[in-house]
Amino acid sequence: MSTARSTALPLPPATGAWQEGDPPGRRAWVALAEPLPLEGGGSLPGVRIAYETWGRLAADGANAVLVLHALTGDSHAAGPAGPGHPSAGWWDALIGPGRAFDTRRWFVVAPNVLGGCQGTTGPASAGPGGAPWGPSFPYLTQRDQVAAEARLADALGIGRWAAVVGGSMGGMRALEWAVSRPERTGSLLVLACPAAASAEQIAWGAVQIGAIRSDPGWRGGSYHRAGPGGGPHRGLGVARRIAHVTYRSEPELAARFGGGPQPGEHPWRGGRYQVESYLDHHAEKLVRRFDAGSYIALTEAMNGHDVGRDRGGVRAALSRVRMPTLVAGVGSDRLYPPAQQAELAAAIPGADRPRTVESPYGHDGFLIETGQVGALVRELLAEAGQYGSGSSAR
Known about the structure:
By secondary structure, the protein is α/β, with parallel strands linked by helices. It is built from eleven helices and twelve strands. The chain has an eight-stranded mixed sheet with strand order 1-4-8-5-9-10-11-12, with helices on both faces. A two-stranded antiparallel sheet has the order 2-3. A two-stranded parallel sheet has the order 6-7. β11, α9 and β12 form a beta-alpha-beta unit. α1 crosses α2, α3 packs antiparallel against α4 and α3 runs antiparallel to α7.
C-alpha cells in the first residue's frame, strides 16, 4: 500500500484536532457542570460539547431535531469550509430553508461526538492537569456518547427531540437514543448501520487501530505536543486508506480506476496506480483535519456497539423502539450491508419496511445520495410534525 505524499505540501501537524485559540467558526459549546459517569466505570470530568444549530427553537422546544455524524464527521453538518472548519458541511445539501431539514420550521442541532476532535472533549483536549488527555483518555461506548448528548439537550432546554437522525456511527448513536431514551426520541431515521458490530466490522476497525499504534509517531498516545510531522500521521493515513476501501464499492473503484497507473507514473518504477493515488489523496486530507487518538477512541466505541448488551439481547432492546422509525441501507454497502438494516427494521415495532438507497458508491452513499436521503428525511419529519405541537419558533 502506497504511503506517498506530495513533497509540495508542508508536513502534517501532530494532530488535526481543533485547538483552543483556533477560530471557533459556527461552533458553540456547553460545559457539563458535573463529571460524566461512564459505562465502563469511573467518570470523565471537565466535558465540553461543541455543537452547531440551524433554525430557531420553538417556545415549547417541540421542533428540535438531532443530527448525528459518522466517524470522521463533526458538528459542521452544513455550511462552507472556512476559518475553524477545515471541510464544508457533510450534509450541506439537506439543511437550510426549503431543504429536507427545513430550518424555517425545524431547529437542527449537530453536536461533535464525545471523544471527537473538533471542539468536544477527546484525547487531544486538555485534561485535568492542563496537558492533552492523550493515552489517559478513557475508553468510551456509544452509551457514554449518548449520555453526553442528553446533557447537551438538557442545557439547550430540549426535553424531547422531534426526530433523531444518523448514519453509520451516527446511526449507532441514534439507535442508542431510541433504546435508552425512547421518551425523548419522537421519531427515528437510521441509515447504514447495524444493531451490533459484527466480527468482520470489528476486524476492520482493529486493523485500522493497529496501523495507528504501530506508527513510531504514536509515542504511546503522547504525541500531541510534537512538532509538524511528529505525530502518527503515517499510521492514521494507512487507517484512512483501509477504511476508505470499505466505504466504497468494488464496481465503483473498477469503473473509476481499473488497474491503470496514475498518469505520468509507472508502478514498476516506484510510481502509483490510479486507485493508490486516490487513497493517498484521502489519507492526506484526513491527517490534516483529524486526530489519531480520536480515531482510535471512536473506532473502539463503534467496535463495542451492541444495543442488546445487558438488555436481554438485540430483539429485546429493539422492542423498546416504538416511535415512528425509518431504517435504510445503501444497496452497494459492503461495510454495513443492507441485510443488517433489514434485520433492524424487522425487529423494531415502530419501523416501516426497510428502505434502500440506490447508489454505486457503497457505504458512502448515505453521504453522497442527498436526493434519496432527503426524501427519507422529509418523510420522517412529515410524520414527526403530526406529533408536534405546531408552536411557532421563537
